[in-house]
Amino acid sequence: MTTVDSLDARILEALSADPRATVIALADKTGLSRNTVQARLGKLEKQGVLQSFERRIDPAALGYPLTAFILTNVTQQKLSQIAAALDGVPEVVEVHGLSGATDLLIHVVARDADDLYRIAGRILDIDGVEKTTTGLVMRQLVDYRLTPLLEQLTDED
After folding, report:
1. Domains identified in the chain and CATH numbers
2. If you average pLDDT over every residue of the chain, what do you get?
3. Which residues belong to any copy of the HTH asnC-type domain (predicted)?
4. What pTM was computed for the model?
5. pLDDT at position 1
6. What distance in Å separates the CA atoms of residue 33 and residue 10, rounded to the nearest whole number?
């Protein structure tokens, strides 16, 4: 796993503040040379530090205003087949394998309550899925963020 250093963190913090910034604008904001910024951005992309643009798209704008998390218990020996089946469900946004009382945390989006019921049923029908519990997101209290971590890294200079 790649570790971001304080220079990378400065670039990422500036990029987070202005995702459309040019390399020149990032260089100005960070006080680094254009070549340094360009090289480091290339390295960060190659290493998978910079994730896809998809994370910035609001599912509600695509007609999926409901968000839910489905806690799922599965037969462990069928985990790879279950993951492949979940990958085939378009409304599944992400899946996390967990330790503890439940095996998977499945993040889904839906058009409405009936659609969520359909999606949850489709997941429950997957061979190896033993039990699901669905929690509807009522409100997001803290947005996805990494800026505080970036600030912490840049403060270490």
Report:
1. 6-50 (1.10.10.10), 59-136 (3.30.70.920)
2. 93
3. 4-65
4. 0.82
5. 63
6. 13
- Long-range CB contacts for residues 52-59, cutoff 8 Å, separation at least 24: 55/144, 56/19, 59/93, 59/109
Q: Which tokens sit at 132?
A: 């699901």
Nearest to 38 by CA among 20, 22, 16: 22
> Which residues have CB under 8 Å from 44's CB, separation 6+?
2, 4, 8, 11, 12, 50
Pairing of β 104-110 and β 66-74:
antiparallel
DSSP states along 23-84? HHHHHHHHT--HHHHHHHHHHHHHTT-S--GGGGS-GGGGT--EEEEEEEEE-GGGHHHHHH
Distance CA 157, CA 152 (A): 10
* Residue 6 structure tokens: 């304080």
Ramachandran area for residue 88 (φ above 0: left; ψ -120 to 50: alpha; else beta): alpha
Q: Give the residue, 6 or 73, on which the prediction is more confident.
A: 73
Q: Please report, as a single letter, which amino acid is at residue 152.
A: Q
Contact between 67 and 107 under an 8 Å Cβ cutoff? The reply is: yes
CA–CA separation, 67 vs 107, rounded Å?
Answer: 7
